Amino acid sequence: MRFSLLFVSQLLAFGLCSEESKEDINVFGQSQNGIDIDKQRTRFPDTDIDSVNMVRIGDMYYVPILAGTPPQYILTLPDTQIQTTIFADLLCINCYSGIKICSKFSNYQSSTFKTIQRVFDRNDRYYSEYGYFGYETVSIGSKTLEKAVLDITTNMTDVPKYFYSGTRYLSTEYLIPNPSLHNVYNTGVLGLGYPLENISNDVFFSRNNSILNFLGEKKFVTIDLREDGGKFSLGLKKNTNETIVWTKPDGNAGFGFKLDSYTFANGILPLTDMTAEVNPRYEEIYMDSDIAYKINTYAIKQYPNCTGFNGKHIAAFTSGNYTLKLFPQYFMELEEGVCKSKIIPIDPRFISPKKIIFGQSFLRGNAMVLGYEEPKIGFIEKTFQDIMPAKLI
């Protein structure tokens, strides 16, 4: 039986960094950018909520976790589209396009990890690559357990199309190859995807090896980027005066949801068969080229110098009772004197133009809730509403 867990060629590039940046992102000791990560753990008594402060590097937020034998701190990007937790090994010296990976994560030392055979192993005259699958101790906040992880080690000169474990295939064709991913300084991916129902429990991406193991009776994960540094919570973390508005599920197993319409330039346009996902693994927002062009053109016209943002959104997408608003201060950025947008047109060779993927450029200023009892995604309402008048086009 074959199936695909979408994870890009850039999967093997997670940690690309310069010599100068290595010291800044030393997450394997007790500090991260001068922050004592041990002190960043927040335990909420008498609840099933366990939170850690996310670490911001550049424009991206990461979840620090403790993993391995011996345990080491690793910065991970939360990923809602895969179930697997993936770490890069110290020996991954040429993970992508000949650029050395910035990973200090040493080989696993536990016997359970070493005795499990390689899940892929390919060699030829040009390159070799291999990876291990096994159980390792992983801690998020105060919750510690053995979790199945996939470890990648390679000295290849090109990215393989497939990794394999028996007849189960893991595709590396994850998302649009994007040059901006060179700023991703993580050495791992924390899989938050909804567990697949049709996979047996003896494989590493099964229900029993998912993020569900970390959760209490209420099967929720909360990612809140409304605070400086952000907050990642195992459980439902919101204030008593806040409510959750759920999006409209698309009917498939996973955290995708339907989009009904979008508001742009004071008008409402219906959307047909359009679905969306929110994935904080990415900084950008990916969408249909026509919609992206309209929003980007309007945004640059309104804020040509990336200044003077007035706190108003300039476009919004409706899903059921919730409206996903795009604020220019989050997706526009001045680079070398030029105002650029992080809304990227979808390349139809990789993704259907009927899909929108919202990255951290959307999620900043929001709190997202993932529900695992049944697949659903919602947002915690702020205490104020940004209302933009609209008329039907």
From TrEMBL:
GO terms for biological process: proteolysis. Residues 1-17 form the signal peptide. Residues 61-380 form the Peptidase A1 domain. InterPro entries: Aspartic_peptidase_A1, PEPTIDASE_A1, Peptidase_aspartic_dom_sf. Pfam families: Asp. GO terms for molecular function: aspartic-type endopeptidase activity. Transmembrane segments: none annotated. Gene3D superfamilies: Acid Proteases (2.40.70.10). PROSITE patterns: PEPTIDASE_A1 (PS51767). It comes from the Eukaryota. This is Peptidase A1 domain-containing protein.
